[in-house]
C-alpha cells in the first residue's frame, strides 16, 4: 500500500481520518481557493479538493493523497468561514428556520500512477428557528469562526439543528469517510 497523505491543515479532517485507523501524514497545500465566476458550488468543491491533492504530488511522488474542501450553501449563496463574530451572527441569523446544504468535495490522487478519483457529497442541515439571544450564546460558547456555516456540528452546534439528512454525516464535518473508504478500496487499501 502506498502511504497516505492528508492534504490539509484542518484538525477536524485529521481527527476524522484518524477514525479509519490507517497510518497517514499531513501537509498543507498552498493553492488559490478563490471561487471562479459562475462556478457552481459542487464544481467548486470538487475542483478545490483535486487541486489540494495534486498540489502536493511533487513533494510526495509515491503517495495516496487525500484532498477535501467544503462549502455551505443557503439558497444560492455560498457561505464561507465567517472568521468574525459579526459575520457568524449574520450567517446564523440568515440560516434561522431554513435548510443549509453542505457540499464536501473529496479527491484521492495516486501520485505514482496519476489516477484521481473525485466526488462531491451533499449533506443538509435543517436549522431551528433561532433568536438573536440564542445565536449570541452559541457563538460566545463555541466561537466557530473557522467553520463553514458558523457552527460546529461535532459540538454544541448540533443544538441549532431541527434535523439532518444525507448519505454520510462525516461530510458535514468536512471529510466524507464513506466515500473515502470506497476510493481507498478502489486503490487496493483494506479498511478495516
Q: What does it look like?
A:
By secondary structure, the chain is of the alpha/beta class. 29% of the residues lie in helices and 27% in strands. It has five helices and seven strands, in the order βαβαββαββαβα. The chain has helices spanning 11-18, 41-55, 85-95, 132-142, 177-186, and strands at 4-7, 24-27, 64-74, 77-79, 99-110, 116-127, 161-165. Strands 1, 2, 3, 4, 5, 6 and 7 form a seven-stranded mixed sheet that branches. α3 (85-95) crosses α4. The protein is elongated.
Features:
7 strands; 192 residues; 29% helix; 7-stranded mixed beta sheet; alpha/beta
Quick recap:
By secondary structure, the chain is of the alpha/beta class. The chain has five helices and seven strands.
Number of helices: 5
Most strands sheet: 7 strands, mixed
What is the SS-derived class?
Answer: alpha/beta
Shape: elongated
Segments where pLDDT lies below 50 for 5+ residues? none
- The helix-strand sequence is EHEHEEHEEHEH
Radius of gyration: 17 Å
Describe the secondary structure blueprint for this structure.
Elements (H helix, E strand, L loop, with lengths): L3 E4 L3 H8 L5 E4 L13 H15 L8 E11 L2 E3 L5 H11 L3 E12 L5 E12 L4 H11 L18 E5 L11 H10 L6
Parallel strand pairs: 1-2, 1-3
Antiparallel strand pairs: 3-4, 3-5, 5-6, 6-7
Amino acid at each position: 500500500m502506498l502511504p497516505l497523505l492528508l492534504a490539509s491543515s484542518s484538525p477536524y479532517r485529521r481527527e476524522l481520518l484518524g477514525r479509519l485507523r490507517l497510518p497517514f501524514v499531513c501537509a498543507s497545500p498552498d493553492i488559490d481557493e478563490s471561487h471562479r465566476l459562475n462556478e457552481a458550488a459542487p464544481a467548486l468543491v470538487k475542483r478545490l479538493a483535486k487541486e489540494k491533492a495534486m498540489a502536493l504530488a511533487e513533494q510526495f511522488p509515491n503517495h495516496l493523497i487525500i484532498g477535501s474542501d467544503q462549502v455551505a450553501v443557503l439558497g444560492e449563496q455560498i457561505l464561507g468561514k465567517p472568521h468574525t463574530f459579526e459575520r457568524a451572527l449574520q450567517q446564523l441569523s440568515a440560516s434561522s428556520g431554513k435548510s443549509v446544504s453542505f457540499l464536501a468535495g473529496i479527491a484521492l490522487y495516486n501520485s505514482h500512477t496519476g489516477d484521481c478519483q473525485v466526488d462531491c457529497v451533499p449533506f443538509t442541515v435543517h436549522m431551528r428557528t433561532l433568536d438573536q439571544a440564542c445565536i449570541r450564546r452559541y457563538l460566545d460558547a463555541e466561537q466557530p469562526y473557522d467553520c463553514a456555516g458558523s457552527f460546529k456540528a461535532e459540538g454544541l452546534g448540533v443544538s441549532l439543528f431541527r434535523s439532518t439528512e444525507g448519505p454520510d454525516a462525516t461530510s458535514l464535518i468536512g471529510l466524507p469517510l464513506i466515500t473515502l473508504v470506497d476510493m481507498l478500496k478502489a486503490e487496493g487499501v483494506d479498511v478495516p
